[in-house]
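Contributing new records

If you add data, match the layout below exactly. Sequence lines come first and carry their own label; structure lines follow with theirs. Keep one chain per record. Anything else will be rejected by the validation script.
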Amino acid sequence: MRSPPIPLAVTMAALGASPSCFTNAMKLNLAGVQFDASQPGLRPRELDIGARRDVAATLRRHELVASGIDCFIPLERFIRLDAVERAMTALFESIAFAEFLGRVPVSFFMPQDADLANTISQEAARRGVLLADFTRPASNTKCGIGIDPAAILLEQKNPAQEVSAAGDRLVTARVNDIDQAGQRGPIGQGRLDALAYRIALEVCGLQTLPVIDCRSWRQPVEESAQCVKRWNELLPVGNL
């Protein structure tokens, strides 16, 4: 039994191969992990029901929950005739896996094609899975919104204001920052007003775990630990 976990998740693919990624997330004392549909050994399309049960058992053993699944397929694959079927299959398998994991959200880029968007939305609704669209700007009103502070800062916009504007369409939110050179990294070292951002998430009533997005960080385990520490210092538990 470990100490009460911190109400954050982390993008697991950056923490190493399975099963060490689960172990590293547990060592960070986080509540959850964000799956990645492209991670070797954990790709939804490659997991039969037995393998999915093994994943669920691994989560329980490490006292972790699934916060969601990333399925960030490049948008151009939805308009290429030689790639669209494979892209849709990968997305549908991610939605099915999300249902298995407890109907956790799927984060992705919504295609602009109306027919594809409707098909995707219908499949997610059929399985009771929320979708979080990370395209900028998010324009599909049938879909929830995902907030990525680093991407918003690169547009010279305010992540806290974007959270407020998303309102009840906000499904999931990342915890990250960019430095003065535009490189992604942990909060507390760059341009993000982390306190305003966290307060915005609290006021908005985000129902899912904020996700430390360490996918492109130089030292993802160490920098995730720094990010956790900084996040906790922003709003001590007694002040929530």
